[in-house]
Amino acid sequence: MLVERICPSNLHFLKNRRRMWTPFSLLYRLFVLTLYVAFVYLVGCGYVIFVGYCVLLFIIMEFSRLVLCRRKTTLEKRAHRVRVLVGSLDSAKFDVPMRKFFLLSEECIGSSGTDQGGDRGKESETERLFRVKDPIPLVDRQTFPQWKVAIEIGSLFTSLPWTKKRHRTLFLQPLGEFPDFIRNFRLGDKTLFNLLKAFASAFFAGMGVEILDELNVDNLPFTTRHHKVTGKKQILVSDILTKITRHVTKHSKNDFVVGISWTDLYPSEDLNFVLGEASYKDRSAVLSFGRFEPRTYKGNEIDGDPDITAIDGQILWRLLKVLSHETCHIFGLAHCVFFDCAMNESSAIEEAMSQPLFLCPICLRKLQHALGFDVRSRYRDLHSICSLIQLHFPTKQMADAIVWLEKCSMFLNTLDGRDIV
């Protein structure tokens, strides 16, 4: 993961930082003072006249400084304060509601360092859309500037030209054979993979998405094993990540490949199961949804959830969650520790499925910078595809996600980014 450990005071520093004189301002005042002395020396005026001229020139100097370097507005001060979190919010690129949307990350500063666990009182504008972690961990933070620097440095040592060019295509690669209920699934005129394509096209707006033909994993040099309890076949996930891009004939250096497997995956011999994994270096990810995590077993019977035999709303939610999370890792996004976010780390399927489907302002800023999409249009497209799924396969998680999208759209479509209702 592209994570940098930073000093705990890095964010808290911005909250109480003092106004500092820049080298430019010091040189400017020294230059003006030199002119004062030179003028007095040449004219030979007395002390009273000298003081008068000093006062007059000082007034002219300060007036010029105020005109040339106008005072920052409240919005500009807030934007400068959160640059450590979301980078520069240029008014030429972002209108006022859009800037205020990213400025919702400001509450992380008040939740860092010595301010952890404080009483925030009345529900804030941020908490209506994004729930801040309390407390925010002091390590493993990845802000937008850290992500950007790590990506740029990484491009010097790897063949990743996408740091300079926009991404081209995200390939969805089915791995192995799928049961008939997967092949026969329809949502309107969409197959299951067409539905995943539509969601990925909205989530990663600005990037083309294509579905490839099924790839027979039996003919590929993947390391496999049979689970010692279930007896089911599993594929070593690292083999897929490093080798899958070689078998995509259309693939170029600007493209990503996400493998979707019905066969179980495992990360190492000492670990039982992995839902999905991604490789930034190999520009690939893989996920499996063939069964639920084997938590406990009684003989040959699973004490818990059985294998998947039909597609329902919960399975679709799970697929969308893992697909978006692992693909974001290919963009270099690390696990988020600032907000409840789609990029939160999880240690179990139940925990992963309870997390939000969408990104927090800090993670969204990273993806928006990488793809250059319009946030409003992206949310509209996501609302459309989520509403379609909710219509046919209703779940509480998807209903909450749709309400959240509507709140975001309401916030972004106000003239001045006022609080949402």
**CATH architecture assignment name of one domain:** 3-Layer(aba) Sandwich
How many β-strand stretches? 10
Poorly predicted segments? 1-20, 111-123, 294-304, 417-421
Largest sheet: 5 strands, mixed
Order of helices and strands: HHHHHHHHHEHHEEEHEEEEEEHHHHH
**DSSP helix fraction:** 40-55%
Structure description:
With 421 residues, the chain is an alpha/beta fold. Among the domains are: 25-68; 165-395, Collagenase (Catalytic Domain), CATH 3.40.390.10. It is 44% helix and 10% strand. It has 17 helices and ten strands. It has helices spanning 9-15, 23-43, 47-68, 74-81, 83-86, 96-102, 107-110, 125-129, 144-157, 180-183, 192-203, 237-243, 313-330, 349-353, 361-371, 375-392, 396-412, and strands at residues 169-175, 208-211, 224-226, 233-236, 256-261, 264-266, 276-279, 284-288, 297-298, 301-302. The strands form three sheets. It has a five-stranded mixed β-sheet with strand order 2-1-5-8-7, with helices on both faces. A three-stranded mixed β-sheet has the order 3-4-6. β7 and β8 form a beta hairpin. The two termini are 38 Å apart. 29% of the residues are buried. The model is unreliable at 1-20, 111-123, 294-304 and 417-421 (pLDDT under 50).
Describe this structure in a few short sentences.
This protein has 421 residues and is of the alpha/beta class. It has helices at 9-15, 23-43, 47-68, 74-81, 83-86, 96-102, 107-110, 125-129, 144-157, 180-183, 192-203, 237-243, 313-330, 349-353, 361-371, 375-392, 396-412, and strands spanning 169-175, 208-211, 224-226, 233-236, 256-261, 264-266, 276-279, 284-288, 297-298, 301-302.
